[in-house]
Design a protein that fits this description.
CATH class: Alpha Beta
Number of helices: 17
Helix content: 25-40%
Number of domains: 1
Distance between the termini: 15 Å
Shape: globular
Number of strands: 15
Structural class: alpha/beta
Length: 474
């Protein structure tokens, strides 16, 4: 089987071919590593590729299968991990020159669970420095490019993960999501990006365990792969207090996805406190809603111009940054991304009263979201308000929409995902077609706590009714 054909296969399909002997783990790994090497210069999806370790693990996986060993559901399947998540014996550099040589003695628990299920780590995917922005470039690794058009950004901060999955550089990617960092690049690159309910997937290495809103996420090209990945990574871990004593059934792929739509109540908000929405994105969202309505979905609407906590999110995200970066000297900070230095300075000068108000504002935002679920099963929104900016656009520059300057990117481009990090609700970006410029866009779906199955049902139905493709030349 040709390399590109292997790389286009889902984890589910690869598992079947590995099981029946049509492929070996070594063959699969050779194809993926070849594809990684071919695209690294043009796409720059990886901060680090562990070729030696991946090939050895693939050889060991084939030997275990030959011995008749007990095999996990992902045995021999390649996966990647964002360069923000600890991986044993591999550098985790946070996209920063300042973290060179930072090698952990353990895997983050979500990573360990994937390995226990038989998945094989390829390497670490790129992230902006300390994941501080929604565009994936850094002084250490440079820009990561969108596989649909390399003149454009892939979004961020899990941008390398989105590019890897979209371009066939391994079907599974472990991400983080603090303000949409899984969903934003998933939308930009045409793949699935999930932020599960707070406490479903352990994030025991998080800096703030009790007030956290940054979670470990998952990215795949198919719903079936997302279900397997979510089920494997989920579960209690003593290092993360939010996971304690939480029980929920595993998710499943519905046997007849379209049938799950009849009678489903969705509430659509084209905006979440922002004024501007790209015409192409708006058309893509209306197409999704039309498809759903024709299958029996009950759609209600409101404009969404009410306050969705954008300023509160800015204060909460920026608030701890100065403390987190305090151990770096002024000389070391000179080596940082200029926009990170600006963000640290912003953190150091935040208004105390604004910080004091955030716990109550976060609670109010949770209640505001819960009110929607009194009358709807899912909330739908665009994932971002416009296609991604071009390479070279900085996080400090305003975003332009429909040919007009809209304003700061946080408030006017990627404002949609952040509220649900703060409320803890599960949310997903599902491919929703392309805008007229040929770049993907995604619809964001939000569900009640631990109702990931509703997101899976919707994803499976849209995968069937509005099939999404891989980028050209993959």
């Amino acid at each position: 089987m040709p390399t590109n054909e292997i790389c286009r296969l889902s984890a589910h399909d690869l598992a079947a071919l590995l099981s029946n002997g049509s492929l070996t783990a070594e063959t699969v790994m050779d194809a993926v590593l070849t594809r990684c090497a071919e695209t690294q210069v043009s796409l720059n999806a990886f901060a680090l590729i562990d070729e030696v370790g991946a090939r050895k693990a693939a050889c060991d996986a084939d030997a275990a299968r030959a011995r008749g060993s007990n095999l996990g559901p992902l045995h021999g399947i390649p996966f990647s991990v964002k360069d923000l998540i600890h991986t044993k014996d591999l550098e985790t550099a946070f996209g920063s020159h300042l973290m060179a040589g930072n090698i952990s003695d353990h895997d983050a628990h979500a990573v360990a669970r994937l390995k226990e299920a038989g998945a094989i780590l390829i390497g670490k995917t790129t992230t902006p420095e300390f994941a501080h922005k929604a565009i994936t470039d850094s002084p250490r690794y440079g820009p990561t490019r969108n596989p649909w058009n390399t003149e454009f950004s892939c979004g961020g901060s899990s941008g390398g993960a989105a590019v890897a999955v979209a371009a066939g550089l391994g079907p599974l990617a472990v991400t983080t999501d603090g303000a949409g960092s899984s969903r934003i690049p998933a939308s930009c690159c045409g793949v699935l990006g999930l932020k599960a309910t707070l406490g479903r997937i352990p994030n025991e290495d998080g800096a703030d365990l009790f007030g956290t809103f940054s979670l470990v996420g998952a990215m795949t090209r198919t719903t079936a792969d997302l279900v397997t990945m979510l089920n494997v990574m989920s579960g209690e871990h003593p290092g993360d207090p939010w996971t304690r004593s939480v029980t929920y059934p595993p998710c499943v792929v519905p046997s007849t996805p379209s049938a799950t739509l009849r009678g489903l109540r969705v509430h659509y908000k084209p905006r979440l406190g922002n004024e501007h929405l790209d015409d192409g994105v708006a058309v893509a969202m209306e197409n999704v809603l039309d498809i759903l309505q024709r299958k029996g979905v009950i759609v209600t609407r409101s404009d969404g111009r009410e306050d969705w906590g954008n300023e509160m999110a800015r204060v909460m995200i920026r608030g701890p940054l100065a403390a987190r970066m305090a151990h770096f000297s002024d000389e070391q900070r000179d080596a940082m991304d200029p926009t990170l230095r600006t963000a640290i300075a912003e953190s150091e000068t935040l208004d105390l009263r604004a910080l004091q108000q955030t716990p109550m504002q976060r609670a109010a935002l949770y209640r505001q979201t819960e009110d929607i679920f009194e009358h709807a099963d899912l909330l739908l929104t665009p994932c971002v308000s416009a296609p991604p900016p071009r390479i070279g656009h900085t996080a400090a520059e305003p975003i332009s929409i429909n040919g007009k300057v809209a304003g700061p990117m946080r408030a006017h481009w990627y404002n949609y995902p952040a509220p649900f990090n703060l409320t803890g609700h599960p949310a997903i970006s599902i491919p929703a077609g392309q805008t007229p410029d040929g770049l993907p866009t995604g619809v964001q779906a939000v569900a009640p706590w631990f109702a990931e199955q509703r997101l899976i049902d919707l994803s499976a139905a849209l995968e069937e009714l509005l099939p999404w493709n891989m980028p050209p030349n993959t």
